[in-house]
Amino acid sequence: MTHHAPVILDIAGQSLTDDDRRRLQHPLCGGMILFTRNFKDRRTLTELTAEIKA
Predict the structure, then answer these.
(1) Who's near 52: CB < 8 A, 6+ residues apart?
(2) Cα–Cα distance between 14 and 20 in angstroms, integer?
(3) CA of residue 37 relative to chain centroid, distance
């Protein structure tokens, strides 16, 4: 029996790659976790969050 559950993704840099965007659209993507390596200040965090939601 195969059981599929949602996964949480992360990204390597401070912006989304085409592969990141493709993964975010996958039906099993349950969300994304961000780390301090993904932003340098509040502005870049806000921009990245908007890019993820787009």
Answers:
(1) 16, 24, 32
(2) 12
(3) 13
Angle ∠(32,10,29) on CA atoms, nearest 5? 45
3-state secondary structure of 32: strand
Tens digit of pLDDT at every position of the chain (54 positions): 678 889 999 999 999 999 999 999 999 999 999 999 999 999 999 999 999 998
Q: What is the pTM of this model?
A: 0.78
Residues in CB range of 17: below 8 A, 6 or more apart: 11
- CA-based torsion, 33, 36, 39, 42: positive or negative: positive
Identify the DSSP state of 48.
H
